[in-house]
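Request:
You are asked to prepare a plain-text protein record giving the amino acid sequence and the backbone structure tokens, at your earliest convenience.
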Amino acid sequence: MKALVCELCQRQQVETTVHHLTPREEGGSKLPTANLCIPCHKQIHALYTNKELAVRLNTIELLRDDEKIKKYVKWIRKQPSKTLVKVRKSNEKKQKR
């Protein structure tokens, strides 16, 4: 983990993790990645299945434009970089399991 800029929310001086834009489970181990802050990374995986991420949300631009994450990104941008966020799975994702 490094203190960088989150490619999704654009907050600066946050610890980032590597997010495989196409999940490894869906064949993305050698495909492009993005540096995301921990809250954004957790929120993405709470909202979307790996299949959804691989098929329709495999770029930062597509993620940013998706309605499910758009409100979250707007909110998290206003939060201090050290804010710890509790993440819950969406009801929709729970039903898919």
In short: The mean pLDDT is 88. The CA atoms of residues 6 and 91 lie 26 Å apart. The chain has one domain: 2-96. The longest helix spans residues 38-47.
